[in-house]
Design a protein that fits this description.
This protein is 6% helix and 47% strand. It has two domains: 121 residues, Elongation Factor Tu (Ef-tu), domain 3, CATH 2.40.30; 112 residues. The protein has one helix and 18 strands. With 258 residues, it is mostly beta strands. The model has no long low-confidence stretch (mean pLDDT 94). The radius of gyration is 22 Å and the shape is elongated.
Amino acid sequence: MYIYLPETKETIEIGANIPLRLLKHRVPSLQTSTDENDSTVLNRVIEADFIFEGVDNTDYYLLQHEIYALFVREKPYYVYFQRMPGIMYRVLCEPFETNKFGVNGAGSFTLNFHVQGGYGRSRGTTLSPLIFESELWQIGMGITHEDLKYTFKENIFRVYNAGHVTIDPDRKHDLIITLKCEGTPRIKNHTTGSLYQFNKAMKYSDKLILKGIKTYLNNDLVSKYSNHKVIKLAVGWNDIEISGCANPEASFDFPFLY
């Protein structure tokens, strides 16, 4: 098991620095509640069982102190597991206690990780190298054998979402679209019907960035010049068209959700 801290970009391997071992973990399926208009992701909890072993009674309490510091954090972090190393989960853990057993410093405990947002996400994004040698990807993530592209210089192209979930920035899903062009661009996803319009003329030296629900032009927040809509990416292929401008250069950067 591994912990990834997004603020520092540090990866911690469980058991590398203290005598702590993951025995087993259980990742439940995604659960949703659907009404006639929308669906809601229900609480998803990953359970993980651990043991640790110190040399004596004093060492037990020292290890307990380190374990609490390792897992109990103020901000959410990511965990992923050796069996499925390409998918990580943004989590916070419930309060827990360790249980001492034996005559030396051995102990055990179970963690309940609450998955923020409910989804697992790929460790890499679409602008990471899409090769297994990068150690960010694995078999079973829906990545096709085709030469997938996420940067484009055409007005009409296709974007592939390999995950199990529609990418929707209105639901706080990560999606960064970067565009350079000349004119007043419109981005249309004909697959989902979503349409984004920027109502201010751009020069080719400008860089437009759609980050979540916000729009930036050359690092300045300019959402007021947009139609306040987002581009959604369905599972599988999405047919995208950029119009209203010339010489477009676009990139789509997002993780896949599971």
